[in-house]
Amino acid sequence: MSTLTALARAQAAALGVAQPITTVAHVHVSARPLVLVPLALAGEANAPLAAMVGDDPRSPRLLVVVQPRNRDQRFAFAAELAGSVVPYIEGFCGTEEEVPAGRGGESRVRFADAPQILVPGPAAAGFVRLLGRSTRFRRTDGEFAVDPSVPLLGRWLSFLAERAAHPGSCLLLTATDSLSRHWASGQSDLEDLNLAALVGWIDPPPGLTGPQAAAAAEDPLTWPPAGPATDPGFDNEVLAPLIAACQRAAGGAAERRARAALADALAGQLVPTWRLLWRAVGLLRAMPSGEHVGPRWNADKDAFTGYARYLQSGGAPQPRRDGAVAAARRLNWLERAQATLGAQRAFDDPLVMAEYRLAGEAFAGTVVTAEPDRIDHSGPRRRLRPLITVATADPVLLAPGAIVSAPGRPGQKGRVVSVTSPAGQPGAVVLELSGGMGRKLTATPGTVPEIGERLCYSTLTDGYQPSAEFPLAEETPWTHGGPPAPYVPAGEDADEEWS
């Protein structure tokens, strides 16, 4: 937890309401998200019990598994879920947009929008990942055949779960994570995983404070757990007798009544969370979007387009495990994406940038001197290298030679020439500027900061970062298992101890 977030939590506890820790939204919220609230049977690994799904807050679809331990009923549930999820996803494959050519490239075409699935929290996202893993390899013919929509659902859920690991991706969005990245409640991170309590802190009902609303959220009769786990009291006192009644019913009216009673009980567990998720959508939509949210969503659209076309071309399901080289490349990719996301959030949001200023990795101040026409004669060619001095009250821990940039001037870099910071007095940072001033030895008007202008400089960058070098897969060293065999989907891929 950062210092400023800890301070915001203390303020929230003192004032009785969550405090904003951002000035803009750093997640994309779709105009038509698909909300999914899953429930799983306690004591069973990823055994689906029920789900509420839909893209209209007024008309959710309830799916119920009468006997979650029955494998046939599990895959029948998956087929029903596919009936809602797959058409929603494929509905974004009809409209395309042209992406202008980049530097040295060609224009291309991608889908104009992408799906977004919203779940209550990390545990529900884990349910999605495991459900995808347990269904994407299923056969649609022969013994134990499943509906053709089941493996297709599994591939899409696996894609969404893998994409969710990419920092900044919003294809699979968790409500608790998204809200806690924008507000600091007066409770612990663990307690923030309770969606009802977190929303209570952020938007308490009239007449209640955040702590009172969070305390009320602990009552499982009013606010059942947001899935996939259910409340033990509900399991023992309500669920078990209803499932037993369904098993005893011999068909006809008795069985219909038993199933209806079970569906009503499960709907009562799901509806409160369904409403909370749509409240979360409203809270996030009320915030203005950060400047880099759109480009990150474009990257999600690119990923969605690529995987949709891969499936259309008959691509195989995702392998159960990555090879050593593929895993290393993926880790390097995720690390670079995380660094880029951190920089983009800071550039978009002064409250986020304040964390870096407090740590000495950034500083804000006013330009007090400027030499816009300074020429550097040290090299074989004369170069335009203006000098500016920025007076700042921030602690500056940057050494001479460090490269910094300002959010409003992304094409311009500053090299720290010197830092003076007298004890108890505002300091001064001298910067030598390069880039973003035109190609002549005279700076284009407006490209060099003027005296009196207030700027924020940091070491952060969201520019292109080259990938680390890795061997080819066929050159995997023996210490990492040697070259992997080409992946060929097999029937045993579907075997899981927990499925």
What layout of secondary structure does this protein have?
Blueprint lengths: L2 H13 L3 E2 L13 E7 L7 E7 L6 E4 L6 H20 L5 E4 L8 E4 L5 E3 L2 H14 L13 H16 L7 E3 H6 L2 E2 L10 H8 L7 H7 L15 H17 L3 H34 L7 H20 L11 H25 L1 H9 L3 E10 L3 E2 L6 E2 L2 E6 L10 E4 L2 E12 L6 E8 L19 E5 L41
Parallel strand pairs: 2-7, 7-8
Antiparallel strand pairs: 1-9, 2-3, 3-4, 5-6, 10-13, 10-17, 11-12, 13-16, 14-15, 15-16
Helix pairs in contact: 2-4, 3-4, 6-7, 8-9, 11-12
Write up this protein.
The protein is α+β, with helices and mostly antiparallel strands and 499 residues long. It has two domains: 3-99 and 106-320, no CATH class; 347-458, Beta Barrel (Elongation Factor Tu (Ef-tu), domain 3). It is 38% helix and 17% strand. The chain has helices at 3-15, 71-90, 122-135, 149-164, 175-180, 195-202, 210-216, 232-248, 252-285, 293-312, 324-348, 350-358; strands spanning 19-20, 34-40, 48-54, 61-64, 96-99, 108-111, 117-119, 172-174, 183-184, 362-371, 375-376, 383-384, 387-392, 403-406, 409-420, 427-434, 454-458. The protein has a six-stranded antiparallel β-sheet. A five-stranded mixed β-sheet has the order 4-3-2-7-8, with helices on both faces. The longest helix has 34 residues, at 252-285. The protein starts with a helix and ends in a 41-residue tail after the last strand.
- What is the N-to-C order of secondary-structure elements (H for helix, E for strand)? HEEEEHEEEHHEHEHHHHHHHEEEEEEEE
Number of strands: 17
Mean pLDDT comes to: 89
Structural class: alpha+beta
Number of domains: 2
Radius of gyration: 27 Å
Q: Biggest sheet, in brief?
A: 6 strands, antiparallel
